[in-house]
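Sample intake — Lipoprotein
Collected from: Ectopseudomonas alcaliphila
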Amino acid sequence: MLKPLLIGASLAALLAGCSSHPAQPLDQRLLGEWQGTRDKNGPCQFFTWNSSFRADGRFEISFFADEQRTRLIQTERGTWTAHYGKNHLTTDGVKTTEVYDYRFVDADTVEYVSIKADPTADCQADYRFTEHRVGR
């Protein structure tokens, strides 16, 4: 009698330990290190950035005021998901999620178009940009 009860309790504990939310989808092609540059002649302030998308659903993006990436503006960290051509970025401490349409130009180049910007972002203009994989 005790053995079935222990098995049942163990199974219940195991199931309770599982997340009730499914794992968030991550487009595996986006994992890794990337670099981008905002258009110097575009509607928004010029800057460059390095971004890192990790398999644990975390991202880090460092923004620089120069092409050489020596004058750091700021670094943002947060969570990301990406699937079906949409990349969602939620920066730590910011309630609004930024959403981008994306498409691969080739295995190491991704084109993004902003469709939902963070209201605290430096530029609210719709814009597109390209990121290039680093170190491959």
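Post-analysis note: Residues 23-133 form a domain with the Lipocalin fold (CATH 2.40.128.20).
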